[in-house]
Design a protein that fits this description.
By secondary structure, the chain is of the alpha+beta class. It folds into 2 domains: 137 residues, no CATH class; 100 residues. It is 22% helix and 19% strand. It is built from 7 helices and 11 strands. A 5-stranded antiparallel beta sheet has the order 2-9-8-5-6. A 4-stranded antiparallel beta sheet has the order 1-3-4-7, with no helix packed on it. Strands 10-11 form a two-stranded antiparallel sheet. A hairpin with a 4-residue loop joins strand 8 and strand 9. The chain starts with 6 loop residues before the first helix and ends in a 6-residue tail after the last helix.
Length: 308
Amino acid sequence: MNRFPSRRALVVLSVAVVALAGVSSNASAEPYARAGWTAELETYAHDVSGVAIIVDADTFRVDDFTYDGGGPAVYFYLGRDTSNEAFKQGLRVGPLLTGTTFDHDSLVIDLDGTTLDGYHALSVWCEDFYVDFGSATFTPGPLDTNLDQIVNSADIDAIYHDPAFGGAGTGPVDYNNDSAVNQIDVDDWLSDFGTVRGDANLDADVDVWALDGTGDAQVLSSNLGTTTGAIWGNGDFNGDGDVDVWAFDGSGDAQILSENLNTSAGDMGVRTTVVLTATSVPEPSTTAMLIVAGVIGIVCRRRKPWGD
């Protein structure tokens, strides 16, 4: 595989970054405290299984969902816990499931005007007979690598900046449990979260610009030239502590972003709308943005074999 970004991607980023001059990047979006929490459904009846993940205050998705379609009046129900009484008094969400066979499918449930606040468990619930076909409690789960009960970009930083990174290691930062802490753990974390490298604000979309200043290229350009202490939310997508444009091996932060530019959750087979906080940073100077554009432009001209 070509390790360099395509010429088209770099040119697009070059032009876009110039267009960002004078646009403030100070704004940030407040995350939902339980975004990223998961619930792995226990199987009680009708082959129910799957993993639910909280997307935001009024949305969750269910991945790898299996259910044979049997039973009358079966719906997803939210409850304060996993007891039958809690689900009896709980909240019905989503469409009727009865009659539809699911085989390792993914679906998104919108709560339509209410929120997940006060609800801690999910069930595939038969209304007519008050039977729980499969349920689980939402917990931070393995995505919470720094064990702070919140799933956000700090969990990526915890992997990158762990002393064991690049060698043998165990514990929460060894996300894939292979007794090593490395880039594979980061990539697996991002895959399970539903995004890729370059997504500074973890909204499952690698983009250039956003009205509130949290576009991924905006975040990166705001922090361009940071040489120490940079984190994922600043645009440090390779965990080396700085925010740069180019590296010979293709691992420059702008190169990573341009390689995944315009990648969205739909492109990855995941439907999600997670929005987590991007670090608030000072407004970039026009000069800094022009430097980014200029360097990328030079790279495009000198590397003809990179392709189109």
